[in-house]
Amino acid sequence: MFVAFACEVNAARPTFLSSACMDANAEENELVVGRPTIGSAEREEVLACLASGWLGPGPRVRIFEDAFARYQGVAEAAALHSCTDALHLALVCAGIGPGDEVITTPMTFCATVNAIVQVGATPVLADVVPGGLVIDPGAVEAAITPRTRGLLIVHFAGYPCDLVEYTRIASERELVLIEDCAHAIETRVDGRAAGTWGDFGCFSFHATKNVTTGEGGMVLARRNADIERIRRLRAHGVDVDAWARFERGAQHYEVLEHGYKCSMTDLQAALGIPQLARIESNHARRRAIFEAYDALLEPLPVERPAHAPAGARHAHHLYVVRVEGRDEVLEACAREGVGLAVHYRPIPEHRYYRERFGWSPDAFPIATTAGRRVLSLPVSPGMGEADVERVVRALQRALERASTRGPSSRS
Length: 411
Prior knowledge:
By secondary structure, the chain is α/β, with parallel strands linked by helices. The protein has two domains: 19-38 and 278-403, Aspartate Aminotransferase, domain 1 (Alpha-Beta Complex), CATH 3.90.1150; 40-276, Aspartate Aminotransferase, domain 2 (3-Layer(aba) Sandwich). Helix content is 38%, strand content 12%. The protein has helices spanning 40-52, 59-72, 83-93, 110-118, 137-143, 163-173, 224-233, 242-248, 266-277, 279-297, 326-335, 351-357, 365-371, 385-403, and strands spanning 31-32, 78-80, 101-104, 122-125, 148-154, 176-180, 188-189, 192-193, 200-204, 217-221, 312-313, 319-322, 338-339, 374-377. The strands form four sheets. A seven-stranded mixed sheet has the order 2-10-9-6-5-3-4, with helices on both faces. Strands 8-7-11 form a three-stranded antiparallel sheet, with no helix packed on it. A two-stranded parallel ribbon has the order 1-13. The longest helix has 19 residues, at 279-297.
């Protein structure tokens, strides 16, 4: 039995550079997954950064790093251009490279696996648990070999991995534990922030994330020496970065090791600083949206996302449902101006990884079955009750149509 709703709303589209950038046939009130909420505080901070004349890595990056570290309950953090860079430099600092294996999840964005490949190591996949779709500790232990050097776990959609179990496994097996917290800025387990349990925690401020700098990332580390090294590696391996040289009046620097170019800029940090200041109020709003979806979807043939386990806090980053006829539902909702997303097609479903590593989707049945049914619904602090109801109505109509057409494709 389907349920009906009665309310409509007009949600503003983002402002583009010109009307030519807009699809003439697009709905003016389109809802999409991951739309950022940008207000006057962000605009003022960005304009102040522009007026300062210092746009590259500088004082605002330091402010953002310090504020993020305080929020996560640690002493230091290092800001980077992306979470992918954070994962890469964490692996570099861990000394992981050719000949090493790193176990990770098939239910993730490709960046998680690509970072392992980037350092020359071999990714090894372990299946996920059915509810939260996070990597299964039992499957991880079964995948450990003498070549295993690290575990790269992903807190999927803001739902936490079993951090108590993973810290035990890493300690007993003498493995590096890296947490991919791209979805998990606000995630907590036993009152302790995700990203602070392992040797490294890696965060994303991509345009779709709960805190955004357009692009951006952050690393936390158990050892402050690793944070200092990452700060050096992000700026070509030099001993004193440009802002520090400006502050000290120094003109010279020394290259201490091979490095990279993946710093965050002050312009990015200016966008993130005001958002970090209201992270808890935004989290409360997303939690309310999750609760509304839970109630409104209860009568529909939809598998709703798992709640965080006792003693844990969900970041409420993605509201991921599982449906039959997924692809038809996705397309039907798009035609109504409700943009859903797929998080994720599991890694072995992608041709490149099948051909390079010989992975078969059938080897990871839980991730594969879920990955062919998952849909993420829009969740943004800027959404009102009518927006949530509109999403559910569109989903209801799409499910009704899909149920008459048979199973969806395997894409």
